[in-house]
Amino acid sequence: GRGIGGLSEGGYGAINIGLHHPREFKVIESWSGYAEAADISSIFGHERSLLEANTPLDTLAHAASILRNRHVYIWFYSGTDDKFRFQNEAFARALTHADVPHRFFLVRGGHNWALWRGNAARSYLVASEHLA
User: Fold this and answer.
1) Paired residues of 29 in beta bridges
2) pLDDT band at 1, cuts 50/70/90?
3) Percentage of the chain with pLDDT > 70?
4) DSSP collapsed to 3 states, the chain
5) Inter-axis angle of helices 9-20 and 56-69, to 10 degrees?
6) Bridge partners of 7?
7) Nearest C-alpha neighbor of 111 from the set 40, 19, 12, 28
């Protein structure tokens, strides 16, 4: 009955950690996260192998069967004006292709607290439904 979630970089982290540990979480949530590791030298040292190993779009294939078998639910959204929107849309397509249970949706707005506050209650309800 564990869930993991976060917003923005934390949303990326939740998905990344969830895919690296697909047996640990029943629900993975990302609020305006992203699906490609940012090439930040202090984190990945510009190492292509580390970037690929921490890019959910690249690592999903390795975790997909476990996520399916364990009925892990991935719930995430992005603002229509968010710079990470297209990464999230690509990740949603990859989840659909891999037949991993998920819900992705767009919310009018950008990458900000108004968007996250407006969807917080929904995220708690989704988590409680899938952790029950």
Assistant:
1) 5, 75
2) confident
3) 100
4) CCEEEEECHHHHHHHHHHHHCCCCCCEEEEECCCCCCCCCHHHHCCCHHHHHHCCHHHHHHHHHHHHHHCCCEEEEEEECCCCCHHHHHHHHHHHHHCCCCEEEEEECCCCCHHHHHHHHHHHHHHHHHHHC
5) 50
6) 31
7) 12
User: In residues, how long is the chain?
Assistant: 132
Token look-up 């988590």 returns 127
Q: Assess contact for 87 and 60: CB atoms under 8 A.
A: no
Angle between helices 85-97 and 56-69 (to 10 degrees): 40
Which two tokens mark 35? Answer: 């699906």
Q: Encoding tokens for residue 128?
A: 């409680």
Angstrom distance (rounded) from CA 57 to CA 36: 6
Q: Which residue has the tokens 């970037």?
A: 51
* φ/ψ (deg, to 5) at 18: -60, -40
pLDDT at 132: 75
Average pLDDT over residues 15-41: 96
